[in-house]
Structures are given as C-alpha cells and as structure tokens.
Amino acid sequence: MFKKGFTGTQKTKLKSSVQRALRTKITDQFPLLTPHIDELIPKKSQLDLIKAPDRISLYALGTDILFFQHHDDALFPHLRVVHRFPQCFPTLQIDRGAIRFVLSGAQLMCPGLTSPGARLPEREREVKAGTVVAIGAEGKGEACMVGLLKMDTEAIKSVNKGVGVETVHYLGDGLWRLDVD
C-alpha cells in the first residue's frame, strides 16, 4: 500500500465528536488496547487527519501517525504504535528466510508462517481471516510488518499454500519514512 514514498496533503483538525468516535472504533477493533487508550490518545489532545493518495486517511497526534485507513475499511496501527504496545495486537512470527521478502513489500505467503522458526497461535487462540495482525520476525524483538490476515490461522496450517497475510505497512516503506510537519 505504501511501497513508494508520498507526501500527505493538508492537515485537518478533527472535531472532538469525531475523535471520540475514533477512540471508540479503536477500542472496539483492538480490545486489548483499551487500558492504554488514554496514554495513546489523551482526551484533551488534538488529533489531525492527513489525506494521502488513493483515499487513505492518516490519523496523527502532533507529528506521530497513530492509525490509518483506506476509505472506511478497518483501522491499521502504525508500526510505531505496535512497537509501543506489542501485547495489544495479535502477532504472528515469520522465519528468517521471509524477512527480506517482507521488507521489500511482498505479500506474506503461508510457508513463511509455518516453517521452522515461524510461529502461529495455538488452536485455542486462533485468529480469524480479516483480522489486522502484527508480524514479528524470528530472532528480532519488534514487529516488522502490519497486515491483514487472508485466511484463518488453522487454514494456514492445513493448506500451507498461497497468500497468508496481505502486506499493508512494513519497516522502511513510504509511511514509515513519511515526515509529518
């Protein structure tokens, strides 16, 4: 989505009612983030909306982009938010061989999630298709990608073929390098 660099257009201050609705949407979509929502978006703070190409909306607090969304789709956290609150997002782990492909913007294939070194949640904690997930890498401490799960984790284990996670935002992409001033 952000493979190439881009510049955001104007910043628009969000009304307080829109900010409240956004906070509610964030806590509904990421329930584990609820205890940290006041730390992430203080109640008296001013959020900005930055319009990006292809109808992408970036929500920023000062110079930090917190979340983004395409049209009215699901909200996606910026990787810096995932790095601050890693326990609040469902996380999958890829093996070392998949790291270079992920950092070049390729879609994450199922074999990269099922090979030795990779880690999927146990059956009791299965993640459903359509869920926003963070992707960690074997031997690394922080997430390297945010994506949209294309099939349930159990289906990934059983099928082991095709695209498992659609790449949305990764380290070094245009959104990571975007300077918001």
Automatic annotation (TrEMBL):
The entry's keywords: Cytoplasm
PUA domain residues: 90-172
Family, as annotated: Belongs to the TMA20 family.
NCBIfam families: unchar_dom_2
Gene Ontology biological-process annotations: formation of translation preinitiation complex
GO terms for MF: RNA binding
Compartment(s) where it occurs, according to its Swiss-Prot or TrEMBL record: Cytoplasm
CDD domains (UniProt xref): MCT1_N, PUA_MCTS-1-like
GO cellular component terms listed in the entry, alphabetical order: cytoplasm
Alphabetized InterPro entries for the sequence: MCT-1/Tma20, Pre-PUA, PUA, PUA-like_sf, Uncharacterised_CHP00451
Keyword Cell division in record: no
Superkingdom to which the source organism belongs: Eukaryota
Keyword Cytoplasm: yes
Function per UniProt: Involved in translation.
Main location: cytoplasm
Protein name: Translation machinery-associated protein 20
